[in-house]
UniProtKB/TrEMBL annotation:
Signal peptide per UniProt: 1-27
Name of the featured protein: Copper chaperone PCu(A)C
PANTHER family: BLR7088 PROTEIN, COPPER CHAPERONE PCU(A)C
Entry keywords, A to Z: Signal
Amino acid sequence: MSILNRRAFAGALAMSAVLVFGESAFAKDFKFGDLEIIQPWSRATPSSAKAAGGWLVIKNGGETPDRLVSATAEIADRAAVHEMTMSGGVMSMRALKDGLAIPARSEVVLKPGSYHLMFEDLKRPLKQGESFSGTLTFEKAGTVSVTYSVEGMGATAPGHEGQSHGDMH
């Protein structure tokens, strides 16, 4: 088989994997005791940005509730758990001083316009296609290391440049 045919075959094989397995074939999930951290992601930032958001899904398969109390990211000096809300057409954002409750046998979705991680005092701009590491600390489960994928500036969900996930809540 020629080099050109091998490359075409490899490309076809990769596309087949995407068609068969969808985006989850490439998603990074992290299992941690009863907790599962699904698809941590962020957005690319302009060179002058001082902050970035982080989003993910936390599934608690256990019988005991837990609480996300803090986070870190290698690309920022500080990270905090935040909530964004709209009231009377005015958007407000606040740090959740007591963290974010993760009910037993449930999931909590951190997504744009809602709960999120705020990475502050960025050490460098984030570029689409790269990844960075961080930690999530839970009141009961402890600390888990995760890796965030960086999507495009207009992304509204992992793997969907500029599109909404629709079925995520």
